Amino acid sequence: MSADTTLPLDVSAPSSTLADVKVADFVGVFLLGAVMALNEANFRPPDIESAALDWQVALKLVVCLGCGFYGLWFLPRTLPLLLNSAGLWAVAFSAWALMTSLAAVNFGYSFVSAAALWGVLLFAPPVLLQLGIRRVVMTMIVALLLFLVASWATWFVAPELNGFDPDVALAADAARFGGLLHPNGTGRLAATLIALLLVAGRMDFLRWRTIVPLTGFAALTLLLTGSRTYILATVAVGALAWWSARSSEWRLIGTSALFVLLGTALLLLVVSPLVSEPDSLLSPFSRSGRATEIYSMTGRTYLWEFALEKIGQSPLAGYGYSCERFVIAREHFWPTRHAHNVLLSAMLATGVPGGLLLLGAMLWQGSQAIFRPRLFPDLVLLLVLIGGLADCPLLPAIPGATTLLWLMALQWRALEGRPEVRAEQSGSRAENAAEPVRAGNRPA
Question: What is the pTM of this model?
Answer without folding.
Answer: 0.82
